[in-house]
Amino acid sequence: MGAAVDWGLAEKVAVRAAGREPFAESYHYASLSTDFEELTARAEEQVALTTGLRSHSGLARARVTDRQGWVRANIASFQRLLRPITDRLEDNLSSNPLAPVASRVAGAEMGMVLGWMSTRVLGQYDLLVIEDEHPEEQDIVYYVGPNIIGLEKRFAFPPREFRHWLALHEVTHRAQFTGIPWMREHFLGLVGQTVDAVDPDPKRFLDALGRVAAEARSGKNPLDDGGVMALLASPDQKLVLDQVAGLMSLLEGHGDVTMDRAGADQIPSADRFGAVLRQRRAEANPFAKFLQKFIGLEAKMKQYEQGERFIEAVEKEGGTELLDLAWVEPSNLPSIEEIRDPQAWIARVVPTVAA
Length: 355
What we know:
Oligomer: single chain
Number of helices: 16
Strand content: under 5%
Strand order of the largest sheet: 1-3-2
C-alpha cells in the first residue's frame, strides 16, 4: 500500500523552496549557537521569575538550525501528527489507480507550504513530537539561524538584544507547556480530537469548495477564520477548533506580554523589534498573504493581538492573580468568544473559583 503523502518528495520540495539566505555565510553566524545556549538559559530564569511558571522537564535545550533542518524537524512532527488521517486515506486509496499521483501531489503541496514557512520562522518550541522514539530530538527550542542573521543585518538589530528577545518568547511557550502540569496533554488532546475527526471522503472536500465559491461571491474571504482546516471542519470539529483558537490566543498573547516584561530592563530595542516584525508581516507579497490565509497563519497572527488585549483587560480587573486562574485547570481556559469578551470569562471563572 502506498503512502497518502509522499513525505520524501515533501522534503525535497521544501528544501528547494527554502532556498538560501544570502546572509547565512556572515561571520556572525558562528556566534549563534553559543549566544542562544547562554540566552536561552537566562531567559528561562527570567520567565520563571516573571510568571511563576517553571518547567517540570528540566532545563531548556537550544538548537540553532538552518532552514533545511527546520523543514526536516517539522516533517517528522507532521508525520506523527497527521498519522490518523493518512492511515485512513491510505485505506481509502488502496484500490485507486490514481493513488500514487495523489500521494505525490499531497507531498508537493506540503513541501511548498513548509518551504515557504522555513523562510519566515525565527524560533519555535517543538512539542508535537509525542512518541517515545528519539528522546534526544524532543523538547527542543529551535532557532533558525539564517533568518535571524538576515533580519539582524537588514535592520541593523543589536544581535545580542534581538537573540535575547527571541529566546524570551520561545522559552515562555516552553514554560506554558512544561510548567503547567496538564497543559501539554490538554493541547495535544485537542489537536488529536481535530485530527481524528477529519473525514477523508473526497466529497467533503468538494462540498467545501462549493462553500468557498458561495462565500467569495458574497464578498467574504472564506479563509479569514482559520485557513483551510477551519473551512473543511465539521460542526463538531469547529467546536474543538474554537477551543484551540481560544487557547492559542491566550498562549500567544501571554508569550508576547511575558517577553516584554521579563526583558524590559535588558532589551531597550524591544519596541523596535516588535514594530519591524509587525511591518514585515503586513508587507508580505500577495502570494505570501494568500498562503498565510490558506494555512491559517494570518488567523494565528490575530491571536497575538487578541490575546494581548484579553490579558490587558483581565489584569486591569484583577491583576496577574486573576489571569493565573486560567492555569488552574482546563475548564478555566477562555474560549475564543471569551478572548474577545474578557468580561464574560471573568464572570464565568470567578464565581466558579469562589464556590
